Automatic annotation (TrEMBL):
This is Dynein axonemal intermediate chain 4. InterPro entries: Dynein_IC (IPR050687), WD40/YVTN_repeat-like_dom_sf (IPR015943), WD40_repeat_dom_sf (IPR036322), WD40_rpt (IPR001680). It comes from the Eukaryota. WD repeats lie at residues 550-592. Residues 1-23, 178-211, 282-319 are annotated as: Disordered. It comes from Cnemophilus loriae (Loria's bird-of-paradise).
Amino acid sequence: LKVFDDEGKNVTPHPLFQPDPNTAVPRQEKLSFKVFYLLWPGPSSTSRINLSLLNESSRGVVCCPGVSAVQEQGEAAPTEAELEQSVDVFLSETDTLWMLDLPAALVSTEAEEAGRVLERNKIYAEICNAKIGSEYFEEKMVQTISGAAKTKEVQCETITVAEKGMMVTSWDLDNSWSASEPAKAEGPRAPAGRSSKSPTAEEHGQAVAVPSARASSIILAESAVPARSHEEKECHAEAILTSANLQQDLVVMERILMENIFQPKLAVYRQIPVLIEPAVTSDTDVEEAKEEEDDEEKKDEEKEEEPSDPNQSPAEGAGPSLEQLWSYRCDLTSGHSVSSMAWNKVNPDLLAVGYREFVSQDQKKGLACCWSLKNPMWPERIFRCEHGVTAVDFSLASPNLLAVGMANGCVAIYDVRSRNDAALLDSSASLNKHKGPVWQLRWVEQDRGATRGDKKERLMCISGDGRMTQWFIQQRLDCSDVMKIKRTESGKKKLPGERERKNEAPIPQQAAGMCFDFHPEDTDIFLAGTEEGHIHCCSCSGKEQILGTYRGHKGPVYKVAWNPCSTDTFLSCSADWSILLWHRDSHTPLLTFTSVTAFVHDIKWAPKSAFTFAAVNERRVEIWDLSVSIFQPVLSCAASPEGNLSSILFARNAECLLLGDSCGHVGVWQLHNLAAPSPDQV
């Protein structure tokens, strides 16, 4: 099909596909011709165009608007006149479909908007020239269209960041305010005149915090400024000191200072490497250090030349020792005696300490403090009690609850999460409260359910009124008696006359309870030490509460403790200067330990050894290792030169020992060269 214009030129469009001349030419097939006629309505008759299709395989028909193609099927050939007749064919374009429209970034100078574009370019150039040299402007490329994600690697110089600051005083603000508003010349004259004077605290606060208020207060009379300044100064200072943000910032600062001061000691406690800060010294200091090293080397050589004992080995010479790391103490606890200590069951860094004070046999107010390893110089919580604190212990089910026993028989429970020092619950309103001092209390999990394993935590107490009680936490704090400790008759034979005379005097039937300890495996069994020197093995469930009595001490029993590894043995200490080792099935002591003539106030088994325990008497702390010796302690030293030792406690997650004394100090001591526990022997 070919298209000609009015002048007879061939204007047929070329095909878009240009065959490659280097490719092989396909074999020419036989061509055949078929004649079609294009029919369309003319002015007078039907016109035809004879078109020749070269390819025999073609089956299509060329169609134009208003034109129909009819294949010749046995019709007569057109006449010569019909063939010579000229026919006009008009071709028109369809509507353009825009698939992508990118507006041009260039505008012709002859366009209508050329002037407006030139004006915008001029304004943009002026803005860019004004930003040159400004420290707050940086030219960067901006891509507004988010393209496809690509991996690109870019290398550039290091971007440096600089911080700049300046200090502005109140008179600078006044002068700037006056200069910025020259129209208000009459009003700002007062602050401008005061610009050479020293600014007050009120001016500082208003100029920085509320500039508008400062401007409005300028017109006040000079006589009214001092009185208002004094009042606002007090309110502003009080608001700052009571601010929660300031309190939190002070706590963070305190933590940082404590970490810097106690970092080497805390690292030893936690058994991690100690960070040693490199010392920056001058040339003279280096020379002096070298001379000291030379002197030390000479001394070491002289010691090596001295004859040594061949029978003594280095291992035998290095025995157990104690090294003090730090001490929990402050001015608030000075003059009080440490009565008891207890670790938190969940947070091993939180320690509760009870304090009491006895001066001329008059009981004064006590303290219950919570110390943290993060601040050994001041307690985290301070609970002030009306009477001396004799016992403390943390709950396991609710680690935030701290139970406190007092010298007047009162029991109180505090919430250590609260900063309020008021007791959450106390036994002051209970009708069954103790009449004597609560010498010991402890949270104990006991199996009280119908199904095995249904355990409930209960608070158990023993008091000087001879009662062992359990406390219930409900809307108020109330208790019930577990048992009443009765006095036991002596086994010695007495004459009839003596018995009759003794019966004439009134004898109290109840014996004062001093201490107790529950069996580590069976919480229904517990030991109770009395003031008369007896130890009762008791049961919480059963008709007969006292299962047996161990008689061996001749003074009040201060502490009893089951062995955590060998649960059939237990220790007891007394005012008769002795420590006794008992077996549950024997009513006579297995071993008696006595090293000094002093009251033994407290004993504790090592948490990971069946042979090692610690004890404190008036002046010394003793470490006993039964696998080494049953006659002498492996370590005995005076750990409190200022006062008498009163309490002892092993650290839960470190090889350390805590010692409380009568001066209100709780020393933390590191144990060195102590024999490792042997699990094979019991």
